Structures are given as structure tokens and as C-alpha cells.
């Protein structure tokens, strides 16, 4: 469960501005003609900023946005700015009165919500492998960082999807997105619980110097804790902890301990007098 974010990645609805004489058969309100993607700012995605922006657009007789105003803020400048800029790029079918185009106001409600992002399996895997390849091949640090950000957001999209759908088949997809080393670490989980944590562990392994490692660790820790809870519930339902479940719980706890030690060691390195 996001190239900016593809237009499939957002819920975009258009609502006509109140006050128009829409109940008159002589009047047809302006409507959006463009099929452009609504770009979800990457910085907002990384910070998991969601919101809704209401934008007023004055559409001229040629269907062009002559004026644009943010009528209701999302509370986040990054989303308000993106919505304003997006609205200025749209083409419209102008309002019509007696079969003649007129200038008029219309209202757009633009929703930026990560949890509404559709998850397309094949597209997801293609994107992930493409970004991994680009990161590996580029020597430009800015380009590398940009691809890492986009890759990371594909992982966030996967995590959002499995939060809603308990689909074990996703683990087969994950297997083709991570290194053999990381897959081997978690392979025994593949037929027991959905394991989105694997991709974040792989990100940490592949890109230890990335600025997103801290985010990836936080996601990994939370998802491992969630997986631990799922295993314990499965054990309660069966009346006992099976040998396999016990082994999987040990693997989770071992990795959590490693992450805790890594953070402690880094803290000591940066503060040697403590």
C-alpha cells in the first residue's frame, strides 16, 4: 500500500461550488476535463502527512483556471501548496448557459490519504526492482537519495496494504523484492504470518548509510511487535505454543535485541563520556 503518487494512489473528488443555479436546465456547471495525476508530495508521504484541501477555481470560457484559491486548508502547508499548484494545471469543460460557455467558479476537494492507495502487486514489484537497480547503478548522491525515498514509500505502501488485508500470498511477492540473505533470515515466516517487516529489514541491510534507516528501523520494530502478537494469538487459539511458533518468536526477539544493541552502540559512539 504511492512518482509523487500515481493518480490511482489518491481519492480525488470534485464538488461544484454551492450557489450555482445547478437546478436550472439551462445551466451546466464546469467540470474537470483533465485526467492528470494528483501528485502527492514525497516529503508529505515520508512524514505520513495526510489531509484534505478545498480549492476554489474560477474557470474561464476556454476551460482554463483563471483564478485559484485555497478555501479550506488541510492544516499542512505542503499539501495546500501542492493542491494549489495542481489546480492551476487542470483543464475544464467550462460552465454552459443556454448552450454558451460562461466563466464560473467551481470547487475541488482534493484528498491526500495514504491508506486509500490501491496496491497493484505486479506494478509494486516492478517499481521496487526498478528503484533498487537505479540506486545500485547511480553514483550521484542526490539521485540515489531520491530513488531510496521512492523505494521506501513503496515499502510503506505494502505495509498499508497488509494492514487491511491478511494475505499470505504477499510473502511470495516479498521474496522477489529482497536479498537472499534477508529472505533466508525470515523464510520460515512465509506460511505463518504476513511479513511486511522483511522489506524494511532489507532496506536497512542494503542501504545502511541512508537517511531513511532510522524510519526503516522504527517500521521494522513496530511490524515485528505486531507479528509477535499475531503468533501469540495463533498459539492461544490452538491452546498451546507449537515448536514452530516458539522458534519464530525467538527469531523475532533476537532481531529486536540486535536493533536495540545497534541503537545503544551508536548512542555510545556519539556520546563516549556517558
Description:
It is elongated, with a radius of gyration of 24 Å. Helix 3 packs antiparallel against helix 4, helix 7 (197-206) packs antiparallel against helix 8 and helix 8 (213-238) runs antiparallel to helix 9 (243-270). 29% of the residues are buried. With 274 residues, the protein is of the alpha+beta class. The strands form three sheets. A four-stranded antiparallel beta sheet has the order 1-9-4-5, covered by helices on one side. The chain is built from nine helices and nine strands. Helix content is 49%, strand content 16%. It starts with 10 loop residues before the first strand and ends with a helix. The longest helix is centred in the last third of the chain and has 28 residues, at 243-270. It has two domains: 7-116, TonB (TolA/TonB C-terminal domain), CATH 3.30.2420.10; 121-270, no CATH class.
